[in-house]
Specification:
Blueprint lengths: L2 E4 L2 E8 L4 E5 L10 H7 L4 E5 L18 H14 L5 E6 L1 H12 L4 E7 L8 H21 L8 H4 L6 H12 L5 H4 L8 E6 L6 H10 L4 E5 L6 H4 L1 H15 L3
Parallel strand pairs: 3-4, 3-5, 5-6, 6-7, 7-8
Antiparallel strand pairs: 1-2, 2-4
Helix pairs in contact: 2-3, 4-6
Length: about 250
């Protein structure tokens, strides 16, 4: 299995297919395994790349909280693209992976061909809601350390992961799921690349975020999938893949 060494932290990644590159980032407490259906369905025309974030599944889970951050995750994403020979890519992700895709674009707009944001949100402008989110993340971390991996949420994208360390997931919650400021949400009106915003109609937590991002990102395309929840790609794979392929075919056409 291919791994990157990022200053002593091993990051697992995988790739399949040839053509325009697409980087897929998973949600918190999920892993690259959640993208199996997309790796199989879309690699006939595209170079699909996925990875396990720090603290998740096959990647390392260092004990030190300083080894988990948005900045390090962005660096991991760039390093994975480098390892796969992709100077530029469509940057895509679900939930935490979608937020990190926006953060990657903010840091590396020159490497971002387009964005695909699945069942995700752009963070918070106001301190109060951000503090509530961070409280949720740190409470989740404490629960994992107290009760172990059996407390991992049982949503579809999480069930397919095989985590090795409750401590790693806890530190990832503290260092990567929490948010420090409103830079990502404030960047939305400045996004100049084609953007697909997609959510499952039953994902009540993130439908308002999808509406907000589609309104704020110039020219964004919004798709709401019927009979799908937070893991829209697993709940309705055929409809999800069709929407993604339609978007990719348009934005990567020569």
């Amino acid at each position: 299995m291919p791994y990157l060494d990022r200053d002593g932290v091993k990051i697992y990644y995988e790739e399949r297919g040839t053509g325009p590159a697409v980087l897929l980032s998973h949600g918190y407490s999920a892993s690259a395994r959640m993208w199996k259906g997309q790796m199989e369905a879309l690699s006939d025309r595209y170079h699909l790349i996925a990875f396990d974030m720090r603290g998740h599944d096959r990647s390392d889970s260092p004990d030190d909280l300083a080894r988990y951050s948005h900045e390090l995750t962005i660096g991991d994403m760039a390093a994975v693209l480098d390892a796969c020979g992709a100077k530029r890519a469509v940057i895509a992700g679900l939930s935490l992976g979608g937020f990190m895709s926006l953060a990657f674009h903010l840091a590396h707009p020159e490497r971002t061909v387009a964005l695909m944001l699945f069942d995700t949100g752009p963070g918070y402008k106001k301190d109060g809601p951000r503090e509530e989110w961070n409280k949720m993340a740190t409470t989740r971390a404490a629960q994992l350390e107290k009760d172990g991996l059996d407390t991992a949420q049982a949503s579809a994208e999480v069930r397919v992961a095989h985590h090795r360390s409750a401590r790693g997931l806890a530190q990832a919650a503290r260092g990567m799921l929490t948010q420090k400021d409103g830079r990502v949400i404030e960047s939305l009106p400045e996004i100049k690349v084609p953007t697909l915003v997609l959510a499952g109609e039953q994902d009540k937590m993130f439908i308002p975020s999808a509406d907000y991002m589609a309104a704020k990102i110039p020219g964004a395309e919004k798709v709401i999938l019927a009979n799908a929840g937070h893991a829209a790609n697993i709940d309705q794979p055929a409809a999800f893949n069709a929407a993604v392929r339609k978007f990719l075919d348009r934005v990567t056409a020569a």
